[in-house]
Write a sequence for this structure.
């Protein structure tokens, strides 16, 4: 897998993920809480798809490296409101 990181400074990098989440009250709050709990930061969020049951989001996350991004993906996948999470491939 080819990987590239855009530097943010202070050893922080931007990783982009795609998340499909249930269209239910509190879903976005659960996602943002999980990201904050792992001491990452959301630098950009975009809703790229929406249906009656699901939202598809792209999130740009400021992380310390690939390990933190992998941990975040695992944490997000464990949430009941999250249908899928994957590294964004442009």
């Amino acid at each position: 897998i080819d990987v590239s990181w855009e530097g943010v400074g202070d050893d922080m990098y931007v990783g982009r993920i795609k998340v499909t989440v249930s269209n239910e009250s509190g879903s976005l709050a659960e996602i943002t809480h999980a990201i904050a709990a792992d001491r990452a930061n959301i630098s950009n969020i975009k809703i790229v798809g929406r249906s009656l049951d699901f939202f598809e989001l792209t999130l740009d996350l400021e992380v310390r490296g690939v390990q933190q991004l992998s941990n975040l993906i695992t944490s997000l996948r464990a949430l009941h409101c999250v249908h899928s999470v994957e590294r964004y491939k442009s």
